[in-house]
Design goal:
mainly beta; Jelly Rolls; 1 helix
């Protein structure tokens, strides 16, 4: 049963989802792993040598915050396009995160962190609305 206290944006989403930019009507990433637990969020994309162009992770935070949604790039060996989202899926901040950097935080409080291939950095801008689609995800 889904947690009814969780925002509708991610409620009930498990496993792998597709992320779509609703504002632009275009796909952003085809296989995004939803990370809810502390351990899965902490590991994120650490220790991987590369990331496919359609892959990524969505870190689901328990609260909306600038500090709680901050990320590190320790043991991440490639740059990432990072998008911070509010509870409704609107992009509130974005950056190109470089390997081995200690700290990246959003400009505004965020509930979600979407980490995808660096080539996707121009696929969404601050203010764009993103959506998750579990049915469209490749298995």
């Amino acid at each position: 049963m889904p947690d009814l206290t969780e925002p509708m944006f991610s409620r009930g989403r498990q496993g792998t989802c597709t992320v779509v930019n609703r504002t632009r009507g275009a796909p952003l990433a085809g296989q995004v792993r939803v990370c809810r637990s502390f351990g899965s969020r902490l590991m994120g994309l650490m220790m991987r040598r590369r990331l496919g162009s359609e892959r990524g992770v969505l870190l689901v935070m328990s609260t909306t915050s600038r500090i709680d949604s901050a990320i590190h790039m320790l043991f991440v060996f490639f740059p990432l396009a990072v998008f911070w989202l509010d509870e409704e899926g609107f992009v509130v901040s974005r950056c190109l995160a470089k390997p081995w950097r200690l700290f990246y935080a959003p400009q505004r409080p965020a509930r979600y962190v979407l980490e995808v291939a660096q080539a996707r950095i121009d696929s969404a801008a601050v203010g764009d609305c993103l959506a998750l689609d579990a049915a469209g995800a490749a298995r």
